[in-house]
């Protein structure tokens, strides 16, 4: 069974496609994961923003030119095993659309902060207790992260957001990317650890 990771922003032409592409690039060796993205107010059918695509390519994307924006649907939210929003308003919109998605929906910077602080032994135990099914073990890891959400608050609520660079200056695009890259790297490291532990089970 393929584990579905969905990234979400507003227009689906800057932040969420960059996150999707860079996570895919960093975890390209594992066929258990599938990455996709969508926008809450997507510019459906539009290609990726040119400056965002250039920055994504600089940081490891190999498929920025293939990106096509699409509108977030309830079906996407239901089907995803992990949803990484680019900002708190996207997370809020997702949970309002499907309240039970709260346990698998984070902003990407929030998720990175939480999983970077998780106890490795607790993570291993949670996965072992979930049994042998790969999707159940992945869900257990995500639920452990959700349960720790209040334990690792950000200094400022806005620290959970990746700033929207769309139609802004080059410096804002760089700032947005600089906020996103560490979160992508921490998320990729965590997902890789979870899948490695699963393959060794």
From TrEMBL:
The keyword RNA-binding does not apply. One of its GO terms (molecular function) is protein tyrosine phosphatase activity. It comes from the Bacteria. Residues 3-193 form the Phosphotyrosine protein phosphatase I domain. Keywords: Hydrolase, Protein phosphatase. Pfam families: LMWPc. The active site is at residues 9, 15. InterPro entries: LMW_PTPase, Ptyr_pPase, Ptyr_pPase_sf, Tyr_phospatase_low_mol_wt. Belongs to the low molecular weight phosphotyrosine protein phosphatase family. This is Protein-tyrosine phosphatase. It comes from Paramicrobacterium agarici.
């Amino acid at each position: 069974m393929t584990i579905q990771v969905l990234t979400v922003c507003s227009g689906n032409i800057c932040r969420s496609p960059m996150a999707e592409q860079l996570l895919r690039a960093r975890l390209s060796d594992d066929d258990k994961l599938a990455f996709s993205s969508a926008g809450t107010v997507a510019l459906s059918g539009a290609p990726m923003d040119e400056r965002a695509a250039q920055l994504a390519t600089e940081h490891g994307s190999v498929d920025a030119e293939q990106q096509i924006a699409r509108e977030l649907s309830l079906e996407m939210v239901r089907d995803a095993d992990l949803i990484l929003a680019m900002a708190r308003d996207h997370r809020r919109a997702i949970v309002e659309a499907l309240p039970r998605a709260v346990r698998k929906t984070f902003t990407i910077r929030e998720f990175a902060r939480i999983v970077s602080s998780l106890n490795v032994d607790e993570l291993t135990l949670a996965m072992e207790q979930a049994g042998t099914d790969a999707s159940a073990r992945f869900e257990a890891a995500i639920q452990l992260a959700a349960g720790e959400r209040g334990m690792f608050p950000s200094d400022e609520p806005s620290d959970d957001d990746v700033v929207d660079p769309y139609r802004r200056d080059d410096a804002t695009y760089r700032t947005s990317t600089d906020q996103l890259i560490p979160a992508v790297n921490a998320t990729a490291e965590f997902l890789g650890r979870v899948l490695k532990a699963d393959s060794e089970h």
